[in-house]
Amino acid sequence: MPVINVNSLKWYVKYIGLPLIFSVSMYRLCGRLRDTKRRNALQGKVVVITGASSGIGEALAHVFYEYGCKVVLAARRKTELERVKNDLLSKKISLPTEEPIVLELDLSDLEQLETFVTKVHEVCGEIDILINNGGVSHRGSILYTNLEVDKKIMFTNYFGSVGLTKAALPKMVERKSGHIIFISSVQGLIATPDRSAYAASKHAMQAFGDSLRAEMHQHNIKVSVVSPGYVKTAVSMNALTGSGEKHAVMDKTTASGFEAEYVAEKVLDMVINGDKELVISQFVPNLAIFLRRFAPSVYHWAMTKRAVKTA
Fold first, then answer.
1. How many other CB atoms are found less than 10 A from the CB of residue 144?
2. 195, 147 contact by CB (below 8 A)
3. N or C of the chain: less Cβ packing under 10 Å?
4. Measuring CA to CA, how many Å separate 186 from each of 55, 201, 206, 297?
5. Alpha-carbon gap, residue 182 to 202, rounded angstroms
6. Residues 6+ apart with CB under 8 A from 285
7. What pLDDT, on a 0 to 100 scale, did the predictor assign at position 23?
8. What does the pLDDT read at residue 99?
9. Is pTM beyond 0.70 here?
10. How far apart are the C-alpha atoms of 93 and 298, rounded to whole Å?
11. What string of DSSP letters covers 21-69?
């Protein structure tokens, strides 16, 4: 039987065991403090989420509901919104929660946006956080994309979010409080072949968000733009082709992307920290963003090569 060296054991306990225990304890303590901060910041806040019937919007509904927010679920598909609502109500949460609100909304129908905001105010009294998440993507070359597709995507992704924001702003300005969030894309920072309509709508959203942030600072209203890379959702399945039909294909890059829940947690942290911008992306899109800014000739060369491959 081997003899245990007492001095060696004491050394390991002192220089490895105790620091390890201390580190784990501090990590857990920081986690509890973070959760407490989240609860205090979000408890009872009214959060409106567009595109809440699936993907990132659905994941956002879960994380904000779990931290005591009154969640307003908005999208075109009421049946799916009811499913999300039932999923939220079935969760076992230690915090006091309020029943989620389901409201149908078609972002491309600009005439109904003010009516939608009025309904939210009637039911909830106010809007603390507006998350402009709803949208549609695009797959197709410029040459073979009908102008109607460009218009539909721009109306849904850009004008829909802008119109909803404009409808919600007056009461936020009156209260001197609020947070507007735009779920954009890395395509709002760079543009790639076969994504022209989508990239254009997200570039416009980025610009609008930047202007809005500057103007709303004096009114104590926060504005954040989130730029996710590839996220594992049905975005490519529902993307419009050049003819206006659904792409109906799960892209490999999308299938291997971040989980929507991961993105939602990052957005939650951004809201609590009050960050103005957040890029959640993989290495290649991040590299493309870097090249577009600091080595544009290299970026343009790479996009040209990519366009040839997809032609």
1. 11
2. no
3. N
4. 17, 12, 10, 19
5. 9
6. 186, 190, 229, 230
7. 73
8. 93
9. yes
10. 50
11. HHHHHHHHHHHHHHHHHHHHHHTT-EEEEETTTSHHHHHHHHHHHHTT-
Q: Tell me which residue has tokens 């570039």.
A: 203
Count CB atoms within 10 A of the CB of residue 86. 10
Angle at 128 between CA 127 and CA 129, to 5 degrees: 100
Measured distance CA(278)–CA(289) in Å, rounded: 13
Q: What is the pLDDT of residue 10?
A: 65
Residue with tokens 């600009």: 110
What angle in degrees, to the nearest 10, is found between the helix axes of 196-216 and 147-154? 30
**pLDDT score for 248:** 85
Residue of 65, 67, 198, 230 with catalytic role: 198
HSE, side-chain direction, 13 A CA sphere, residue 144 = 12
> What is the rounded distance in angstroms from the CA atom of residue 147 to the CA atom of residue 39?
46
175 φ/ψ angles, rounded to the nearest 5 degrees: -85, -10
Whole-number Å distance between alpha carbons of 124 and 119: 8
For every residue of the chain, DSSP letters joined together read: -PPP-HHHHHHHIIIIIHHHHHHHHHHHHHHHHHHHHHHHHHTT-EEEEETTTSHHHHHHHHHHHHTT-EEEEEES-HHHHHHHHHHHHTS--SS-----EEEE--TT-GGGHHHHHHHHHHHHS--SEEEE-----EES-STT--HHHHHHHHIIIIIHHHHHHHHHHHHHHHHT-EEEEEE--GGGTS--TT-HHHHHHHHHHHHHHHHHHHHHGGGTEEEEEEEE--BSSSHHHH-EETTSSB-----HHHHTSB-HHHHHHHHHHHHHHT-SEEEE--HHHHHHHHHHHH-HHHHHHHHHHHHHHH-
- Residues of the chain whose pLDDT is less than 70? 1-18, 20-22, 24, 29, 31-33, 35-39, 310-311
Burial profile 246-259: b = 16 or more Cβ within 10 angstroms, e = fewer: ebeeebeebeebbe
